[in-house]
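Sequence in, structure out. Go.
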Amino acid sequence: MLYNNSNMEGMCEKGLLEYVRKSSPPPFLLKTYMLVEDPVTDDVISWNVEGTAFVVWQPAEFARDLLPTLFKHSNFSSFVRQLNTYGFRKVATNRWEFCNDMFRKGEKELLCEIRRRKAWSNKQQPVAPTQSAPQEFDEDQRSSSTSSSSGYSTLIDENKRLKKENGVLNSELLSMKKKCKELLDLVAMYAHPEKEEEDERPKLFGVRLEVPGEREMKRKRAEIRESASILLSQSCK
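Output:
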């Protein structure tokens, strides 16, 4: 009876692992789908016109800039080999276009139907498939956990960098406001002098004589001072 109970527990555990594996798409497929779906990277990787396959338009940029963000490498050949293990086919000769009947635009739920191809050695050893399934599941889970941790660290670093840049900008803004205030004080000093300018017009029998054009010159100087004061106050707000 004990032997039968152990067998039943083992079968239940294997059945549970198989259910989880089949109901959850492998992280590799989820990450690839995210890259293809992201409109920001359409110039590097995107769906074809029909939405039945995806195209890597710029393999070099894809390997250098995008692969490291979700995977643990920047090797385009390794990425292609992974696609092959999940049954993807290269369907164009003049570009890197890959197709799988269950990898379609807007039908993410079909990813659960894609299975990793079993190696030839597994076909000749019946025990191997039942042992490789949990191992594959564990590897996919570790890969997903590692990529999530890496993405979180990247966000923290980016947040620190933005805070530092914000501090520098605030410092520069305070410096510019200080300079504007000094300019305004300077303009105000000349626009509203504390002492009236000394009247240097000549006198005749104690009476100041009018100098041609003097009033016009004073009026223009006053207008210039006022305009300069207004422009500076507006530019420093």
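Check: The chain has a mean pLDDT of 75. The CA atoms of residues 89 and 99 lie 5 Å apart.
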